Recover the amino acids of this structure.
């Protein structure tokens, strides 16, 4: 079955603390993995994609094919990181994307 | 200059009515999508269109009929609205088969009373 699992609905950390948002996926093949973010009153937007292996706003995510995971990490959380984060899997061909249920990150001052 | 736009932003209507949501993208993308986000913020794909052709229909009731008059537009018409249709509907676009990154519209909050 094709599935993206984000086990935490809510993650609350203090400013300056490390943060890790977990994502596991189930897909038979080679999908593209993404993290999307939705800040308050803003539209959903791409944060980063596994194929780029880049760091955006201090966030990184490593694709672990053995564990079928794509966890999102940041060493020092900032208050402006508070948002809803979605892990997503796009099937080859690009026409179908499966989103996880989302994790709401709350960074406390 | 807005990349993906949706109208209306809010839609309040009664059960049994028919309503439409419009979506337009000016990114030159060839693929457009409709997603439904429920009250728990779960985002689920409904339809995917590529070059005006329906590619994905994720077991959506026949009351929902998407229409793509051209590559830049993907409208969603809903017949006989039900309480369970209340949600936020997002339109998105991408240049399929290249980077797959999707650009989302601001969403349309549909409330059925």
């Amino acid at each position: 079955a094709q599935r993206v699992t984000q086990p935490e609905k809510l993650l609350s950390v203090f400013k300056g603390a490390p943060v890790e948002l977990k994502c596991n996926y189930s897909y038979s093949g080679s999908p593209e993995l993404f993290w999307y973010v939705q800040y308050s009153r803003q539209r959903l937007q791409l944060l980063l994609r596994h194929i780029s292996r880049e760091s955006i706003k201090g966030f990184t995510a490593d694709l672990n094919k053995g564990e079928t995971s794509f966890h999102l990490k940041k060493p020092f959380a900032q208050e402006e990181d508070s948002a809803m984060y979605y892990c997503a899997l796009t099937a080859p061909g690009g026409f179908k994307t499966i989103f996880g249920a989302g994790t709401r990150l709350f960074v406390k001052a | 200059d807005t990349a993906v736009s949706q109208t209306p932003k809010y839609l309040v209507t009664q059960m049994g009515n028919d309503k439409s949501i419009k979506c337009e993208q000016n990114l030159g993308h060839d693929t457009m999508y409709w997603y439904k986000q429920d009250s728990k913020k779960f985002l689920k794909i409904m339809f995917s269109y590529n070059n005006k052709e329906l590619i994905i229909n994720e077991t959506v009731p026949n009351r929902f009929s998407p229409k793509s008059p051209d590559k830049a537009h993907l409208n969603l018409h809903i017949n006989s609205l039900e309480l369970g249709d209340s949600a936020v509907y997002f339109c998105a676009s991408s240049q399929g088969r290249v980077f797959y990154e999707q650009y989302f519209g601001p969403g349309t909050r549909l409330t059925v009373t």
